[in-house]
Amino acid sequence: MNNKTQYISEDGLAKLRAELAELVNARRAEIAQRIHDAKEHGDLSENAEYEDAKNEQAFVEGQIQRLESLVKNAVIIDEVHGTEHVQIGSTVKVEGSDGKEQFTIVGSTEASPREGRISNESPVGRALLGRHKGDKVDVRVPAGDFSYKILEIS
After folding, report:
1. In degrees rounded to 5, what are phi and psi of residue 125?
2. Confidence (pLDDT) at 1
3. What pLDDT, on the 0 to 100 scale, is given for residue 77?
4. In this structure, which long-range contacts are made by residues 25-31, counting pairs with CB atoms below 8 Å and at least 24 apart in sequence?
5. Which tens digit of pLDDT belongs to each residue from 19-54?
6. Residue that terminates a domain, selected from 47, 76, 105
7. Which domain holds residue 125?
8. Looking at the structure, do residues 10 and 72 belong to the same domain, yes or no?
9. H helices present in the chain, as ranges
10. Is the residue at 82 inside a domain?
11. Entry pTM
12. Are 24 and 64 in contact (CB under 8 A)?
């Protein structure tokens, strides 16, 4: 399993734990019952219901392992942090060639670029980490190179 540190908010960790509990406590039992019921129908070699239930069981067990690893390696993002430099949990207002933008630096588990939540592992997130208000940041991404000026850190 992956032992890489996963930065996550307390709320994000609570959601992961709830999803894990749902899979372990409810979905496992549902799938076990489906497998049991499918076995009752006889010949397993040509039983589509049985095959489908076994495939779903494998998927759910994979999800459980993934979530257990994420929870085990979770490091809570400090909600209260300084505004001296950009760190995980910071909200950063920047200005670039496309105008002003705002990003919140989060762990990869909670990243959602459309909502302005970028991963600390993304090119932009990595470039912003450790920088200060007023710094000019150059970022290289697959789409090309661009620059941001950090306007505010909160």
Report:
1. -60, -45
2. 56
3. 83
4. 27/60, 28/60, 28/64, 31/56, 31/57, 31/60
5. 999 999 999 999 999 999 888 877 777 778 888 999
6. 76
7. 91-153
8. yes
9. 10-22, 28-39, 48-72, 123-128
10. no
11. 0.72
12. yes
